[in-house]
Specification:
With about 375 residues, the chain is mainly alpha-helical. It is built from 17 helices and no strands. Helix 1 crosses helix 6, helix 5 packs across helix 15 and helix 10 packs parallel to helix 16.
Length: about 375
């Protein structure tokens, strides 16, 4: 039962990753069909992230009231409905409307499952959890590429929406399995509000670091395809395939990282990831006519990103106490999506005004901020370990 529950959690995280890479891989064609500027992808991302911020802030209260399993199932069905709504959309305004339920669903499941795994499983399982998120993000660009070749981008959203619906049905019929961890999952402490959490020593630095990392990750994911078309001259269909290389690097890195995380620990894995991520950014800065250089850069950038997100999350209970982790992780998710909400569209504006070639420099600024803030957090909370 224990292994089966873990498998269900992994599948739930595939459902979280499936929609995340669709918009970026399909946007070079979508914006032309919808007759809007290329930078308008940032508007959709902002709406999705806005909904995610709201649901993340309330996730701890929802989870304590209804349980992780109910919040997870409801969130999967909500995002499935939103994806099917995207597939029926023929106008930009319709995308804006359906982006709202997608964001609300994604934030609730993200915070709930991250806290559940941080409390009940090791850093290895946290890494593999996010590896399965990566599986979802790898699948989607190939589905979108296939749809652009044989049909339209709407078909790509429809196919992923149907897969999401199937995952939701699987989770629904297996709800009783979650009872295995119920005694551990329940907590007698009350959910803390935003003001109370910010008063905990070290939390503001943690939130800033997580904000910076997620700004870098979201920008790389969202604009990789556009970077290849605008800077390297690759056609839209091929660029959608190339964009998947970042997700492949991310997914492979999280799978392999799971084997060494328990030995190195969260802090050293974050530093290791940041070092590899920096190498990937430096490769993207190399001027070359060969496509192999940026392709290698995106793969290595993905590898570097791999351990950072799961290790920051997994370190939260040990840094701040299990009694605070649910509230803090919910707000962490909110800070992450604030980074996605504002920094991803900001790059779109800068790319239009200056050049999309500044992508590596933009990523480097956030990596520097992330490392400095997370290191400050670990130094402040060292007494807890």
């Amino acid at each position: 039962m224990y292994t089966f529950l873990l498998s269900l959690i992994y599948i739930a995280f595939i459902s979280l990753g499936l929609p995340d890479s669709l918009l970026g891989s399909g946007w070079p064609v979508m914006h032309e069909d919808l007759n809007v500027p290329i930078s308008f992808m940032g508007i959709i991302s902002m709406i999705i992230s806005g909904g995610t911020i709201v649901s993340s802030l309330f996730s701890d209260k929802l989870t304590r009231r209804f349980g992780t399993q109910v919040v997870t199932v409801a969130s999967v069905f909500l995002t499935a409905a939103a994806l099917l709504g995207f597939s029926w959309s023929g106008h930009f305004v319709m995308l804006m409307v359906f982006a709202i339920p997608y964001g609300l669903g994604a934030g609730a499941i993200d915070a709930a499952l991250n806290n559940y795994v941080a409390l009940h499983y090791t850093s290895r399982h946290m890494s593999w959890l996010h590896c399965f998120w990566g599986v979802g993000t790898v699948i989607s660009p190939f589905v979108m590429s296939y749809s652009l070749t044989t049909s339209t981008w709407n078909t790509g959203y429809r196919l992923i929406g149907l897969i999401q619906m199937a995952i939701g049905l699987l989770l629904l019929v297996t709800l009783p399995v979650w009872k295995i961890n119920r005694p551990k999952a329940e907590s007698s402490s009350e959910a803390k509000g935003l003001v109370s959490v910010l008063k905990i020593k070290g939390v503001p630095f943690l939130l800033t670091g997580f904000f910076a990392y997620c700004a870098a990750e979201a920008t790389a994911m969202g604009w990789a395809s556009t970077y290849m078309t605008e800077v390297k001259g690759v056609d839209a269909v091929q660029a959608a395939r190339f964009a998947s290389l970042f997700y492949i690097g991310l997914t492979v890195g999280r799978f392999l990282g799971g084997f060494i995380m328990n030995k190195l620990g969260d802090r050293w894995m974050i530093l290791l990831g940041a070092s590899v991520l920096t190498c990937g950014i430096l490769i993207l800065l190399i001027p070359s006519e060969s496509l192999l250089i940026p392709l290698a850069g995106f793969i290595i950038t993905g590898l570097g990103c791999a351990p950072i997100y799961p290790c920051i999350i997994h370190s939260t209970p040990s840094n701040f106490g299990a009694e605070n982790s649910g509230s803090i992780i919910g707000i962490q998710m909110a800070s992450a999506y604030i980074g996605s909400t504002f920094m991803l569209p900001l790059f779109g504006l800068l790319g239009n005004r200056i050049s999309f070639a500044i992508l590596p420099l933009y990523l480097a600024l956030f990596v520097i901020l992330m490392v400095s803030m997370t290191e400050t957090t670990f130094r402040i909370t060292e007494g807890r370990h």
